[in-house]
Amino acid sequence: MEGWHGVRFHRPVQATRETIEIIRTVSSGQRLEHAGEIYPLPLPDSAGRALQPMVRPAHVPVYIAAMGPRNLRLTGELADGWLGNAFIPEAAEVFFGPLREGAEKAGRTLGDIDLVAPVAVEITSGAAETAATVRKHAEGYAFTIGAMGDNGRNFYNEAFTRLGFGDAVAEVAELWQSGDKAAARRAVPDDLGRLTNLIGTPEVIAERVRRYREAGISTLLVKLDGDYDTQLATVRQLIDIVGGVD
């Protein structure tokens, strides 16, 4: 947040709540006055004035990529959708529990929220190719585990720990921060690459899609490698696979 966006990472849950409130005010066409703790608008002690947007009122869907329990509860309470990074169908309740709590607080259910699972998709021809591709995606988590976060807080690692990978994540983080990045990549469990993506033969991917559906995911956000023609071919094949899932 501070290195890339230039925004102080201070009280992130409250900042997210206020951002949603401001979006709702602007998109409804109302004059923008917001008595926020993080974003008081107009800015106090300034020459700024409360302005009314020149837009036709419309509902702007808000999706939150929440991982921590507090932000998940906020998502359940206020958001139109959830972007479930690192979602694993077999451990769905790790995320769905707090989401459900927030939704029920607002008189809603999980069915009122678009539950989105971002997944890399790579369709392989057999076990050897599948294993190599899973390994590639697992090793891709090493940077996330080892380099993200600050002051001992890494929200991804905390989420991975709640998903059951705490010991492995601690080892990867220690290796990365000691400078041995190659060993850190090797230490990432295969299951982090396999269970958070759609990798394998069409039959394997069909079974994984079924698990996402049974867990309650409503949308798969597909991430693809390769040039345009390769990506298009993968999407076409994936559509056929999904269409055949009961």
Automatic annotation (TrEMBL):
Pfam families: Bac_luciferase. Keywords: Oxidoreductase. Residues 2-218 form the Luciferase-like domain. GO terms for molecular function: oxidoreductase activity, acting on paired donors, with incorporation or reduction of molecular oxygen. SUPFAM superfamilies: Bacterial luciferase-like. This is LLM class flavin-dependent oxidoreductase. It comes from Nocardia uniformis.
